[in-house]
Design a protein that fits this description.
This protein is an all-alpha fold. It has helices at about 30-45, 50-55, 60-70, 80-95, 110-120, 120-140, 150-170, 175-190, 195-225; strands at about 1-5, 10-15.
Length: about 230
């Protein structure tokens, strides 16, 4: 039985359009449709955001390599997942009133207001930092043959992994150590053609560069927001 695709107008046979992938059967958007979409997009363990989260904490580097090499059907899209998890991080940051500057007493600058601004713009800040992280890893691991866009995907997964961990570890003061450990884990599995020592050195270099850039960006932001 032939179908006319409701998305692109292509005539095809089977359950899915062979041109754009649209399902042959579409259903009215109602409560059942929304619940089904949420189940498969967010909480389905064989695909979606929880599947990708599980992969990032069981086989992160292998999982990211699988995605880049084309095994993508079960994964939540990395940039969409990063935005969702960054939004959750920002919400918790604001709701739990996390304040890394609470011990700083400076009458010339309103750190409380600055911290509040960070919590409201965390998703945007995370996305703006992604090209910087990717440029660092691209330059340090350029001999491994992956292009800059692929490094964007690698670091989108790494940034998401880091945010998942930080969502669960807000009370700890060792987040920099956790960040480096997660980076080493994902890079160590992904870049499988170089020695562990070289991977460690390059990953440490990337972590230091990332930290210095974030520190510089924070300092510049403080300077521009000072009264």
């Amino acid at each position: 039985m032939s179908h006319t695709c409701k998305n692109c107008g292509n005539i095809f046979e089977g359950n899915y359009c062979n041109y754009c992938g649209q399902a042959a059967e579409t259903h009215q958007i109602n409560a059942s449709f929304v619940l089904h979409d949420l189940q498969h997009g967010l909480i389905h363990l064989d695909g979606g955001i929880l599947h990708s989260a599980r992969e990032l904490f069981t086989r992160p580097g292998h999982s990211v390599r699988d995605y880049i090499e084309g095994k993508r059907i079960k994964h939540y899209k990395p940039f969409s997942m990063l935005i969702v998890v960054a939004g959750l991080y920002g919400l918790l940051y604001h709701t739990l009133k996390i304040d890394p500057y609470k011990d700083i007493h400076d009458s010339t600058f309103n750190y409380e207001q600055f911290n509040e601004w960070i919590s409201h713009h965390f998703s945007i800040i995370t996305l703006l930092l992604l090209p910087v992280l990717s440029l660092n890893s691209f330059l340090l691991f350029h001999k491994q043959g992956y292009n800059f866009t692929e490094h964007l995907v690698i670091n989108a997964f790494y940034s998401t992994q880091k945010l998942w961990a930080e969502n669960a570890q807000f009370i700890l003061k060792i987040l920099l150590v956790i960040d480096f450990a997660l980076m080493l884990w994902i890079y160590g599995q992904f870049f499988k053609n170089i020695s562990r020592i070289k991977t460690f050195i390059l990953t440490l270099s990337a972590a230091v560069l990332n930290f210095l850039i974030v520190l510089a960006a924070t300092s510049i932001a403080i300077m521009f927001t000072m009264p």
